[in-house]
Input
Amino acid sequence: MHGVRGALLDIDGVVVVSWHALPGAPEAVEQLRAAGLALRFLTNTTSISRVEIARRLTGEGIPVEAAEVLTAPAATASWLRRHHPDARCFLINSGDLGADLEGVTVVGDDEPADVVLLGGAGPEFSYTQMNHALALLLDGALLVGMHRNLWWRTAEGASLDTGAYLAALERAARTEATVLGKPSPDVFATGLDELDLDAAEVIMVGDDVDNDVLAAQAVGLTGVLVRTGKYRDDTLAAAPGRPDHVIDSVADLPDLLAG
Output
């Protein structure tokens, strides 16, 4: 693949699963860096900060700086600061996002809110919390999601994710959510800005054919789908488009680029 100068790499399902490195991932990242590619690790992970993500990847033999990590929460915070700087946000999220939500005002259950903000799904997505979110939306609050993933793969198997709850609130409140993580074009544009490269010079590597690969291809990047993480043959067959490339794992990426 000629002309490629940078790569956006999804994290969960591509280089790690449940924060354990996939076979060949550390070596592949090392080879990409040695070849001179500029890298960013683009993830919809909403449970931990960029600093912690970098620490965990480095601990698995994939040295990464926090500045190389692009998260859905950071993209969401940037959008809220630009478009709704004074908004009071009712946040439902599993994990601590304080470091990546700088400048965002988060309010409690007993306070009025202008925005219902959904992060990563977990036990916090209870009936009580979802019902309160619905009430706020019916009173005129905006619905914002950090991503629309329906599920993700863990060491224990498939886990339901935010997209399912987001769809329920959209239907119940008859509203449409603004989504800032993948597959939003904004998050890919942010990655290109950080790499200081044009879309034609960058590949996006992911395990989600829709949210990672086809979404990136729609804005001009080259899409590479890996058969790890949440990859399924039937999902690929049913997808509305075809990836530019499909490889078994990120371990095969250096050879793809060299070829």
User: Anything to note?
Assistant: Residues 72-83 form the longest helix (12 residues). The chain has a mean pLDDT of 94. The radius of gyration is 18 Å. The first strand starts at residue 6 and ends at 9.
